[in-house]
Amino acid sequence: MATAVFSPEQLAALSAPLDRAKVQTRSQAGRSLAYLEGWQAIAEANRIFGFDGWQRETIAVQCVSERERTLGSSSRAGWGVTYTARVRIRVGDVIREGSGAGHGIDADLGQAHESALKEAETDAMKRALMTFGNPFGLALYDKQQREVTSSTASAPIRHAPAPQRTTTPGEPTTEVGLEPLDPATVKQILATVRGLPRPALERFTKAFRKRFQVPAEAASIADRICQRRHHEWIETFLVSHTGDRHPVVAAGAASEAR
Hints:
Blueprint: H1 8-15, E1 18-19, E2 24-28, E3 31-35, H2 38-49, E4 55-71, E5 76-91, E6 94-106, H3 109-130, E7 148-149, H4 183-194, H5 198-211, H6 228-242, H7 247-257
Parallel strand pairs: 1-7
Antiparallel strand pairs: 2-3, 4-5, 5-6
Helix pairs in contact: 2-6, 4-7
């Protein structure tokens, strides 16, 4: 008899409807397309399978197009690059693969290659994860989206018993994810972020503003990084854009746990 790979809680999470709040839309060729962002797919994999319960491997990558082109209304000289990639996802003995493509447009040829390669790997990863169920975007392939709901955020999957916190009557409780970070952790996170290459830093800033609805008039996001949810999102972002957990952020997590 084969050993079960997924726990009953994991099976329930994989078959649960997709929360519409996690779905993004974009316009393409006159149509509105619904999709999950790469960091969201990684966050769901960490939530359902566990941070150490799954693996991602890029098994093939190829540049299929590189050409000069004009950029924007100013018609500046630039480059357009396209990559294809194939990614393998392993959860225990279960292996799934997906193919994807990515396009990079930039005045700098190297930056165009970087953007196209990362987009191709992310696209392939999402297609591989999609085969596991609705939380990874499978529900979006149904044109009627019958398995996409407007429910609240998904409940966490228990991989191990969590410590219980006792409260006295009338004591206010902190909503999960809204716990404040200690100053040392914030300092380490900011040092990590500021050490990113400029293109990556710009992508990070744009994504953070969008994710946490930072007003456009806010000159900086530094003072917005103050809660555990910010810390967790930043870790996920770095994993999806560098392929590894940044050691400085990891140190911050250890500091926070002490």
